[in-house]
Amino acid sequence: MMMIFGMFVFSIPTATYQSLQRSTSWNHANNSRFGTSPAYQYTGKGEDSITLDGSIVPEFGSQLSLTALRLMGDTGKSFPLIGGSGKIYGMWVLESVDETQTYFFKNGKPRLVEFSLKLTKTQTAGVLVGNVLGNIVGNIL
User: Fold this and answer.
1) Does domain 3-140 have CATH number 2.60.40.1930?
2) What is the residue extent of each domain of the chain?
3) Which one of 6, 79, 116, 127 is separated from 69 by 20 to 30 angstroms, measured CA to CA?
């Protein structure tokens, strides 16, 4: 397992990604000042996003994987993102799925399906861990 997003597992039988790009921003408001540079004030965290670029070879994986991800996106819900090493990234929404099919068989089935997913963070890992632990303790009591 490379990573899990909600109940979707990134692996050879489903879909593998070859690159993970993460972009984090912070917000700063600026105030113009006469005769000098603008003054900047930190106003909070900005957007945190991850782009996963990968491929599916239909002989080894299923194109249904992208259908499953699209169905997850249709819900509009946030899902936990957890790396294969156990790193908890927090809660993320699926913003977009891009798909490119190439190298076709005679029947029109692609030999290679490349994809790009954009995820955007909605909650921090600390909130996710707190919610999970709270649910565990609540179920025990």
Assistant:
1) no
2) 3-140
3) 127
